[in-house]
Amino acid sequence: MSEELHQVAPVPGGRRADLRADCERCFALCCVAPAFSASADFAIDKDAGQPCPNLQADFRCAIHDRLRPQGFPGCAVFDCFGAGQKVAQHTFDGQDWRSAPRIAAQMFEVFPIMRQLHELLWHLSEALTLPPARPLHGELRLALDETERLSQGSPDDLADLDVAAHRQRGNALLVEASELARAGVRRRRIDHRGADLIGWHLKGADLRGANLRGARLIGANLAGADLRSADLTGVDLRGADLSGADLSDSIFLTQSQLDAATGDSATTLPPSVTRPAHWPASRPAPQGPRRQAGSRRSRAGS
To answer: Which domain does 267 fall in, by range?
Structure first.
């Protein structure tokens, strides 16, 4: 469970308030259902459906306050978008997998499906806050209502759901909303959708209105970059330097993306997210020249 989840800012507007993780109302599903491998994100291997060895009998994490130094930053940044408590309290009526082991397998199967639905609900709700996307608001609300209806289904209904197909339909609307929101921001298009930008040197880059959907920006230097109106859907920002960057009205930026990156007090954020607790209060002092690993271009769009 993430050490930062309790600090997420309230989500304005009706159902969006249910799209924040509430670990107290869950049964540590994120500590059991997913599999993970020993890597920079996790210190150990764990099979799907196997409780993490750090999980205690009361469904709390024994290293909750020191996940990063113990080698579990992947846990620190994970966000279920409220799917955990939905599965625990609604889908399975408050039954937990320990006291009712007969439901464990199906509960673990349903959890990632619910998470995908809730993530889509979050993005659809965000799209409805974009004034330029007003021509799509009717369709977005219909998609939001349908996704919410599906999330209310029984365990069998959820297990049988073709969630990938439903997400694909919703994503098409989100792409349209993004295009409308970014139209007119700049004359020259910057399209890095799905691009491999690992380790790129983009310090001070003008990325206003850029399409960065699904881009891999792991370890990238984005210090001082202008990311206003940039579409950050699904961007991998693990280890990226956002010091002094302007993300004030970036599109579809999630809390978990920020939690995986590094920024400082000079990083400008949209109101829907909060400054991660592990970020330093100010920019670190310069350490002298350093090699820009993986840097192939020094200027965005060049």
So the answer is: 189-302
283 pLDDT above the threshold of 50:
yes
Q: Which of 153, 182, 211 is the last residue of a domain?
A: 182
Mean pLDDT of the chain: 89
pLDDT of res. 185: 83
Give the residue from 173, 21, 27 showing the smallest Cα distance to 93: 27
